[in-house]
Amino acid sequence: MRFSSGLVSGKLVDRFGERAVLGFGLFMVSFFTLLTALSQSYSQLLIFRTLGGLGSSMFSVSAGSLLMRSVGDDVRARAQSLYNGGFLVGGVAGPAFGGILSGVSLRAPFFVYSITLALAGATALFSLSEKRLGKKVDIPSNQIENTSLKEAFRLRPYQIALILAFVNNWVLFGMRSSILPIFVTEKLNSTASIAGLGLTIGALLQGIFLLRAGRFSDESGRKAALLVGSTVVMSAILVLCFTTNVTLYFISMALFGLGGAYVGTAPGSVVGDIIRGRGGQVIAVWQMAGDAGMIVGPILVGFLTDVYSFQVAFIASAIVYSSAIFLAFILPETRQSKLGFELIPDKNKQEL
């Protein structure tokens, strides 16, 4: 649902602005999460969770647009790192806290999640001040220049960012989260705890290096950050191809975490660099490319694993990911502070 509604969310952002779409999207997810907690059958649970996907798409696109337009390109990657770090912490702490709550009731995590989403929605609507987060506005909101998809698609950096979003999510979320736990238990003859420990090591290293990766991207450029990150991630995949014990598995996960800090920050900064005015649909398509990688990746690597072997799936992922290194190599610099001019001229002052 989030993938299919991405463009709709982008159009809403361009029409009504980030704050309104962000707040409404969070309230929408909160409402359907509450209905999920009250569901009386598995069918109801699936329906309510699916309907909440539109709200999820709305707040992810609007939050991305808000972030990219509220900071300059000299600190954009660091801001993106903090934003990604918030998701990383939530992804680790959420299941842990939810597991504790599920001991009380299986419905309890959904109730708590609904409440926290409602609080976040209220924060978005009432606490995000335009004067604090954006430049002073001299023109009405409905006259603000939007960066269109047509303009963005003409730019090579945006084309590269779309492909990078797809292949990065294929590997970092699709392959890593789908077949690796099975690989550890079936091929390495280890336990689920070891598989989880490896993923935790990767998440911790990614969190530790996120801000450093953002600073490196802002100071040395998006191209340099992507070259470093994609090379390290490729090394992680290659280690997996030859992994025969738990030690090599841990090394691979550590490399995934380190490389993920760089490749998880720089592509979003590239998209932010090219946007002038509002660019909800531009951000939406970029996020959809990443979502497509998370959808296609597990299906294909799972198929290759079932038909051939884990090693074939890893090698196929390495071949696909080799494109990331090539694209990082040919990526032109996008920071306006470095170029001295804008890829897409901003005809109006920005408003949030």
UniProtKB/TrEMBL annotation:
What region holds the Major facilitator superfamily (MFS) profile domain?
1-335
Among Gene3D superfamilies, the record links this protein to: MFS general substrate transporter like domains (1.20.1250.20)
Q: What residues form the membrane-spanning segments?
A: 21-40, 46-69, 81-104, 110-128, 160-184, 190-212, 224-242, 248-271, 283-304, 310-331
Indicate what this protein is called per its UniProt record.
Unannotated protein
Q: Where in the cell is it found?
A: Membrane
**Keywords for this protein:** Membrane, Transmembrane, Transmembrane helix, Transport
MF terms (GO), sorted A to Z: transmembrane transporter activity
- Its main subcellular localisation, reduced to a broad class, is membrane
Species whose genome carries this gene: freshwater metagenome
* InterPro entries, alphabetized: MFS, MFS_dom, MFS_trans_sf, MFS_Vesicular_Transporter
- How is this protein positioned relative to the membrane? Multi-pass membrane protein
What is any one of the record's Gene Ontology cellular component terms?
Answer: membrane
